[in-house]
Design brief:
Layout (H helix, E strand, L loop, with lengths): L10 H4 L7 H31 L13 H8 L24 H9 L19 H19 L3 H15 L8 H5 L18 H4 L4 H15 L12 E4 L11 E6 L2 E5 L69 E5 L7 H10 L5 E7 L7 E6 L4 E6 L16 H10 L1
Helix pairs in contact: 5-6, 5-9, 6-9, 9-10
Length: 409
């Protein structure tokens, strides 16, 4: 039989693994042992730390309040009583459409604050108080419209600023702070042309003046507390997240500074005799802000502002002899004249066609209010011999003219 070489199977072709050589096996085992030792060391160290430094079981988890959180992210001057906080740029806004801005603002939770501002007190001359009242009334109406809750909130913010060292030291100074810098004023209406484009009606202006005077006399709006900033809910200012949100009044959101500068301790009363500057921009609607010279066509002697006949006009007929929509209002001669229109408007609220005659101890009429909702008429007229008005159209006519109005209304 013929014989030949025996063929051995080719293990490299069949896929069977070749046993590792001795040095390779030693290296793999050494790596495994090293890794195992490190893992055991880590576990042992962790167990030792837990055993020697146990976590407290009885104490609840600690969480930062919004006030503390804002303080950690706010500038250092927010908590430093020796360093005044920088004023935010009021017109620096994030580029968001109104719907997204509202959603973003709604996602920021409010943190009500227990402290509220004390009643405002200021020793002012009669002229300075009148200028302050009209500056405050302008801020209210232009910022919140003819909406009393919104106007009271704006008035509170202004008076909080007046007593805060970061702002001007007068009501008019705060309202018109940086008004000479385009797009940099603290209150937008003061530098965007609103004072020229639109003005409040007689009743709305009188109502704003009455709210302003009440605030200057100590009325406090607790809804906004110590707020020094606010913005409309359809915008997101860049400064929003550096302040603490207190809440909302209407479409406005109100904020205070974090730390010391957002507390009651930061507010200081005005010095006695603080000056209230004249603001020429308010002259068209505020007699208090007109130059101290006689108005064109207006006699310097108030006694002859109206014909003498008005002083002889007697009281209207008793209510029993008058039509149901003709009302008589007894007025306090020392009260703020703007309050006459507010009270008359309230009396006529449910009367589409209404006339209110205001009387003081003087037999001459002090005030007349006419309303016809069907014709869109709302007219308030004052006895300008006693309460001069900037707009002569707001003055009562002579006795014959008043009698004609009473007969025809």
């Amino acid at each position: 039989m013929a014989s030949g070489p025996i063929a051995l199977p080719d293990r490299s072709q069949s896929g069977a693994a070749m046993p590792a050589s001795g040095p390779a096996i030693w290296r793999d085992r050494r790596t495994f042992v090293w890794r195992l030792a490190m893992a055991l060391l880590f576990v042992g160290t962790l167990g030792w730390l837990i055993h020697t430094h146990p976590l407290p079981r009885s104490d609840p988890a600690q969480r930062l309040s919004l006030d503390e959180l804002a303080a950690t992210t706010a500038p250092a001057d927010a908590a430093d009583p020796a360093r005044l906080p920088a004023l935010p740029r009021p017109l620096a806004l994030l580029a968001l459409p109104p719907d997204l801005a509202r959603a973003s603002n709604a996602a920021v939770p409010a943190q009500p604050f227990a402290q509220i501002a004390p009643p405002f007190r200021a020793t002012l001359t009669a002229d300075a108080r009148a200028r302050a009242a009209d500056c405050l009334a302008a801020a209210q109406w232009y910022e919140a419209g003819d909406d009393p809750p919104g106007e009271r909130a704006v008035a509170q913010v202004v008076l909080n600023r007046v007593r805060h060292p970061a702002f001007a030291k007068s009501v008019c100074g705060v309202v018109f702070q940086d008004a000479d810098r385009a797009n940099a004023c603290q209150f937008t209406f003061a530098c965007d042309g609103s004072l020229v484009r639109r003005r409040p009606g007689v009743v709305a202006w009188a109502r704003a003046q009455a709210i302003a005077m009440a605030a200057l006399n100590g009325a406090v709006d607790p809804a906004v507390g110590l707020a020094t900033h606010y913005h409309a809910d359809y915008v997101v200012p860049q400064w929003r997240d550096s302040l603490i949100k207190l809440g909302a009044v209407g479409a406005h959101l109100f904020y205070r500074w974090p730390g010391f500068w957002g507390t009651l301790a930061a507010l200081h009363p005005l010095a006695p005799g603080s000056a209230e500057p004249q603001v020429p921009q308010l002259a068209p609607m505020s007699q208090a802000h007109r130059a101290l010279t006689a108005l064109p066509g207006l006699p310097e002697d108030d006694a002859v502002t109206l014909p003498h006949a008005i002083a002889t006009l007697r009281s209207p007929a008793p209510d029993s002899a008058r039509a149901p929509d003709h009302l008589t209002l007894t007025l306090d001669a020392n009260a703020f004249p703007g309050s006459y229109a507010v009270r008359a408007f309230a009396l006529c609220k449910d009367h589409p066609h209404c006339l209110v005659m205001g009387q003081t101890a003087d037999p001459a009429p002090a005030f007349l209010y006419l309303q016809d909702t069907r014709k869109g008429v709302q007219t308030a007229l004052w006895n300008c011999a006693r309460t001069p008005r900037t707009d002569h159209a707001q003055c009562l006519p002579d006795a014959a003219g008043v009698a004609h109005i009473l007969a025809g209304w």
